[in-house]
Prior knowledge:
Blueprint (H helix, E strand, L loop, with lengths): L1 H12 L19 E5 L6 H12 L7 E5 L10 H10 L4 E5 L7 H11 L4 E6 L6 E2 L2 E2 L5 E4 L5 H9 L8 H6 L1 H11 L2 H11 L12 H21 L6 H14 L2 E2 L2 H8 L3 H13 L3 E4 L14 E4 L2 H7 L6 H13 L5 E3 L6 E3 L3 E6 L14 E5 L9 E3 L8
Parallel strand pairs: 1-4, 1-7, 2-3, 3-4, 13-14, 14-15
Antiparallel strand pairs: 5-6, 8-10, 9-10, 11-12, 12-13
Amino acid sequence: MEQLFEKQDALLNATNMGVVRNFINHVNWEAPMLCIRGPRGVGKSTLLRQYIRQQYGIGSEEALYCSLDFSYFTQHTILEVAEKFYKHGGKLLVLDEAHKYENWSREVKEVADTYPNLQIILSGSSLLKLIDGDADLSRRCRGYYMPGLSFREYLQFYKGIPLPCHSLEEILAAAKEIAAEVNSKCRPLQHFHEYLKFGYYPFYLKNPIDYYPLIEQVTNYVIDVELPQLRKVNPSNCRKVKALLNVLAQQVPFDVDISKMASMIELQRNTVIEYLGHLADAKLIHLLYSDLIFVKKMQKPDKIYLENPNLLYALATTPVKIGTVRKCFAVNQLSYSHKVEYGKQQGDFKVDGKWTFEVGGEGKTFDQIADLPNSYILADDIESPHGNKLPLWMVGLIY
């Protein structure tokens, strides 16, 4: 036990408190059990250590941070740690990288049943399931999804420019005022295209030269380790899953032809659809449908985008088209808190069933959506809105 507290103190000492993501304010930290899921590399572990340092300080033994890939857990169980911790006055047990511990959900359920006054915080892969066999934690565990950095957070993290969040409703209702506020503090276009290439993951500053190789490592880990472990993908098919992702990286937004895709990577049609679902759950791609209400199991999506523009730049082996990057960014930022559908008839996207968006460059016109109510253009390369033509970067203020 002393070993775990020593490791915690070392980690907390090394945790930078200079910038804390706004996500920390959207979590109900008083919940008896909560789980934070998200893609690898977006800062879940850092956020958990920042919370402990804020609330308990370094040296406290009322909170205990454990990453379940610590070598300690090769010889000790979650149950053993929880029992000793609770009996010595522990109040908060944080179990990071939960998916790396076999049968984690059963042991966590037993800990919660045995020590109901012990608060438990879990974190792990986007693929982590709260329902696992006979250990159903979904009803007692509050779940959260943590994305990568928004454009607003990028400006705060990398440029030292603090800006408030604005909901999509606020942006649409007061676009001129909000844009003027941002323009008074910085030139957003000066930073926007850099964000599209390098701003989504918070590890860019550690070594910019290794940024894209690190993204590739994250992607390979998800496919080679997490998909077989958490989605029972046959390991012999992992190379084909990578081939599928590479096909998408070269051709997004992909006009979906599942049969053609299946032929290219030598898999059955239904297997391809299943694997696309896994890649979407892993937050490597976005699947867009023209009608979310009537989406059926094993139905092919209408459009496919990579999850974020940085991932697109990292994986593409041919020059990336700026039009694709713009739409990838819009889907990524809007889908954090809204339902995004493919605008099959008119417009690029429909959001929450009531707003239609067309995405393009400075010269984009309303020709395709002129007769639609609640329709907007998200245009790149403009600083200020003109009527319903809004700067594309503004949707990067949503979180």
